[in-house]
Amino acid sequence: MANIMIEYNVNLQSMLHVGTGEGFAGIIDRKTLSRIKENERYPIVFGHTVKGMLRDEYRKLLSLTGNSSLDIVESLFGSEKKQGGLYFSHWELNDEIKENLRDKANMLYEVKSGNQIVRGRRVAKSEHLYTHEVVQNNLVFKGIINGIIKEEITLNGIPKPIYYLLLSLYSLKRVGGRRRAGLGHLSLLIKKVEIDGKLFSERQINQLLENNIANLVEEVVNNG
């Protein structure tokens, strides 16, 4: 068994809307997800959402390499009947941003308006103006993945399933709703990885991924 811990940052490159299905005081029809902490309202992306997005990216990556086994996916992410080996934290603003925004967290949000669309005709519905709340861009969220997995073949000391997980992290480019409107663009930076007490720095991780990407491309070509 191997103990795994991954720390990463999510850089928000456009405004974000993660819907709650709720409005506010007749002013906002669609609020974005947030959590009250120390009397301040901060945006958040729940861990189960992160887990679902990564599971989808992981499956895509496995299918490219011709590996359709669900056992690997289940061992990491779990299923309806089985607990996975990994825990996925919420995405929350890093502590430095929270400190700088103390008593000013309302500046993180903006209210946008738009028209509902008739899907079949792609035209605006008459008298169906709505408002939705978005989170400002250029924010940095932090995330953590940790847990225990079975020992596997390693690539430069990183278990192969975790190597694929790191690639899946870098594959995440969008989150939240209203993506056609350009919301939810992101970039992700893996800060450090720890495996059974052995620490891999940001620089080491990037180098390992670059060095082994050729192996992945070869797998894709061979299974194409």
Which helices and strands, and how do they pair?
Elements: E1 2-12, E2 34-37, E3 40-45, H1 47-64, H2 70-77, E4 86-88, E5 91-93, H3 95-100, E6 109-118, E7 123-135, E8 140-149, E9 154-155, E10 158-159, H4 160-171, E11 186-195, E12 198-201, H5 202-222
Helix pairs in contact: 1-4
Domain CRISPR type III-associated protein: 14-186
Keywords: Antiviral defense
Pfam family, one: RAMPs
Strand and helix order: EEEHHEEHEEEEEHEEH
Radius of gyration: 20 Å
CATH class assignment? Alpha Beta
How many individual helices?
5
What composes the largest sheet?
Answer: 8 strands, antiparallel
- CATH homologous superfamily descriptor: Ribonuclease P, Pop5 subunit
**Gap between N and C termini, in Å?**
33 Å
Instruction: Please give the share of residues in helix.
Output: 25-40%
Organism: Lottiidibacillus patelloidae
Protein name: CRISPR type III-associated protein domain-containing protein
InterPro entries: CRISPR_Csm3_endoribonuclease, RAMP_III_fam
Keywords: Antiviral defense
Describe this structure in words.
- By secondary structure, this protein is of the alpha+beta class.
- It has one domain (2-17, 46-105, 139-222): Alpha-Beta Plaits (2-Layer Sandwich).
- The chain is 29% helix and 35% strand.
- It is built from 5 helices and 12 strands.
- It has helices at residues 47-64, 70-77, 95-100, 160-171, 202-222; strands at residues 2-12, 34-37, 40-45, 86-88, 91-93, 109-118, 123-135, 140-149, 154-155, 158-159, 186-195, 198-201.
- The strands form 3 sheets. Strands 1, 2, 3, 4, 5, 8, 11 and 12 form an 8-stranded antiparallel sheet that branches. The chain has a two-stranded antiparallel sheet with strand order 6-7. Strands 9-10 form a two-stranded antiparallel sheet.
- The longest helix is centred in the last third of the chain and has 21 residues, at 202-222.
- The radius of gyration is 20 Å and the shape is globular.
- The relative contact order is 0.25.
- Residues 23-29 and 117-127 have low confidence and may be disordered.
